[in-house]
Write a structure and sequence with these properties.
single chain, 309 residues, alpha/beta, Rossmann fold, nine-stranded mixed beta sheet, 29% helix, 17% strand
Length: 309
């Protein structure tokens, strides 16, 4: 008995990701996925640029297959507001991997959060260029209310005008719960659009996103010279530590991914090639206070009371 449509779609997405990683044409992946090609006309047949040319990391291929599968809402979460830059950069890198539909130009919509813009800053065109992106490929919006942001994300998915929709929210707002998440997930599935939910400084909560990733900054490796050696003291490409918190594929746990700003690809790195993260500002945050007591005072206050009788 043949596999169901959902299983066939997952198998096709996985084989297509592996074929792209190995540098093969996407048509060959389609031929190997299903002989009759019954489901290739569905929105799941969305092109993607190569991710890592010579990697044979099967787990990484599974992760990318889940990310690029059409009609799936992917949640990217940062644990602290200090990590907002890394989470935003990772989402922009994922959006850059997706191509426009039917030969349309690549264009993404970033629905930014006002609080996140005040705390972590807004997108900067020269910075996008240094990151390997094109400013004209990104449309920026900053609604005042979460209701307006949800309406804009729904309208953008319905219009099918964007290769990716990036919805940024701060924390866990009450007006964006499981009901609103399910509504956007269904809209993404019906239209086949790519929806990335960027939750800045938010906690884990129930949502309709089948894939949730926790993104943290990781130390960059040194730059490689033409002879293959590393340039000591230099800073290489951005590196992200990605923790898989929720996934349909078993066995996915943690990845260390490097974004090559020149080739515009993600590469998996081994844990040994990246140093353990240390404090951004080593040393004591505050100097010791002078003229203080030599011991910790006891808790509470001693009160002398007269005897009642």
């Amino acid at each position: 008995m043949g596999a169901g449509p959902q299983a066939q779609e997952q198998l096709f997405a996985l084989r297509q990701a592996v074929a792209l990683i190995e540098g093969k044409a996407s048509h060959a992946a389609r031929m190997a996925a299903e002989p009759d090609h019954a489901y290739l006309s569905t929105p799941s047949d969305r092109p993607m640029e190569p991710v890592a040319a010579d990697s044979e990391n099967v787990e990484f291929a599974k992760l990318m297959a889940e990310i690029v599968r059409a009609g799936v809402m992917v949640e990217i979460r940062s644990q602290r507001m200090q990590d907002a830059g890394s989470a935003s950069g990772f989402v922009l890198a994922l959006a850059r991997l997706l191509k426009g539909r039917n030969g349309a130009p690549r264009r993404s919509l970033l629905i930014a959060d006002a609080f996140g813009g005040r705390e972590a800053g807004m997108v900067y065109a020269p910075g996008l260029v240094d990151f390997g992106l094109e400013p004209d490929e990104l449309v920026h919006a900053m609604p005042r209310r979460i209701e307006d942001a949800l309406w804009l994300a729904d309208a953008a998915l319905t219009s099918r005008a964007f290769s990716a929709v990036l919805l940024e929210v701060h924390g866990n707002p009450k007006k964006f719960g499981l009901t609103e998440s399910r509504r956007l997930s269904l809209r993404s599935r019906d239209t086949g659009g790519a929806l990335f939910l960027l939750r800045q400084a938010g906690e884990e909560e129930a949502s309709s996103a089948p894939l949730r990733l926790l993104v943290e900054p990781a130390p960059a490796v040194a730059r490689k010279l033409s002879d293959g050696s590393l340039l000591g003291g230099s800073i290489g490409h951005p590196v992200f530590r990605v923790l898989v918190e929720k996934s349909r594929s078993p066995g996915l746990s943690q990845f260390i991914l490097e974004w090559n700003i020149h080739e515009r690809r993600l590469y998996p790195l081994s844990a040994g090639s990246v140093a353990s993260p240390g404090p951004a500002y080593p040393g004591d945050l505050l100097s010791e206070t002078g003229n203080r007591s030599d011991r910790t005072p006891s808790m509470g206050i001693v009160v002398a009371l007269d005897r009642a009788s």
